[in-house]
Write a structure and sequence with these properties.
single chain, Molybdenum Cofactor Biosythetic Enzyme, Chain A, Molybdopterin biosynthesis moeA protein, domain 3, Beta-clip, seven-stranded mixed beta sheet, five-stranded mixed beta sheet, 7 helices
Length: 445
Amino acid sequence: MTESKTSPPNNAVMLTGSLHVDDARIAIAGLVEELISESRAMHDPNDIEVLALDQTINRILAEDLLSPIDVPSADNSAMDGFAFHGDFLNTNDAVIKLKVIGTAYAGKPYEGNVGRGECLKIMTGAIMPDGCDTVVPQEFTANPIPNNSSVIQFKTEQLKPGENRRLRGEDLQAGKPAIVAGRLLRPSDLGLAASLGIATLRVHRRIKVAILSSGDELRSIGQTLDPGCIYDSNRYSLIGLLNRLNLEIVDCGIVRDDPAALKAAFSQAAKQADVLISSGGVSVGEADYTKQIMQELGDVGFWKIAMRPGRPMAFGVLKPASGKFPARKTLFFGLPGNPVAVMVTFYQFVRSALLQLNGASQTEPPITQAIAAEAIRKRPGRTEFQRAILSRRVDGRPTVSLTGSQGAGILRSMSEANCFVILGHDQGNISAGDSVDVALFDGLL
């Protein structure tokens, strides 16, 4: 198959060859949008919840939050200083002298009018008194007579009429959206809602995500390791990743390499969850049955993606299970078995799909750039995700260093890293000092 960066058809089920990373993202997003459209057609009332504000962190806002008030609610001072009418600046005087007639505090409006040649000492956030539209910062002023605080003076060149005043509604206007639907709610959003006096928010219900690991060699924590066996780490990595997204988790445990056992586990997961994520069993080994089971239970695009690590990955849908209400299809991701590859493919494909399915409008993680501290070997023709540590050089510029060996099974290097270096499909070797794309883990993994 010739690689391209165009979107594969939505009905492309069996894909051969290595798919471009961008094409994989496009195909996944297209199928998720189809599932969302089908869900909307069901008009399930349980898709939206009303929660107390302090329970909505990392939830997704289901409808625009309209501001019930103007913010600010009145013109007010942007800083500590002295309020007066700015027309008084339109003179030929190099220095202005004003008589201080009182003080305005935040939450205690000054009652009275400020006349020409007068000013009012004012605190940050205090309502601008009648007759005032300008604030001179306190640090710009001086007392013309020592130890006399009733008169201030300042240079006219330091200020323009209307400066240092916040206008009513300049932040938010009553009836206008304060937070737009689809927002993954952050601490600042909760603070914004609270500042508007809003106690509850309407959010999308959390989707349920089932996870399982497949492999005869896997053992659970607490079990004895037989020769050739390993402890299952992938489920714990996935649990951590999903908890970061505040999603409901259905842990289906370890399933042995047996077609009947896998089929039963997939069928049970489809009854319980909106999404199934498995790890292991998606390569071409004799005991890798995921492709076979998916063909029996649904549709799958069995991809070999042009990336490292994480080349083998299955994606598709399980048909609605009997007894599941509402009868939604279950989104499926079959991730590789290597621990690092599980986290890379989750980061690149699963995370965005889960957010999209849960109603989020912004799903892609932010990308920044840094200077490569060392040479990095890279072969054109695939996208690579290298584990690395982002830090800052003495000159203040961000720099990134790899965490040693980049083998797909070396989980320690993932634990030590705080970011991925992303090397594009067509890139070759990177020299020390080159600029590279970087995706931070914090808040994402």
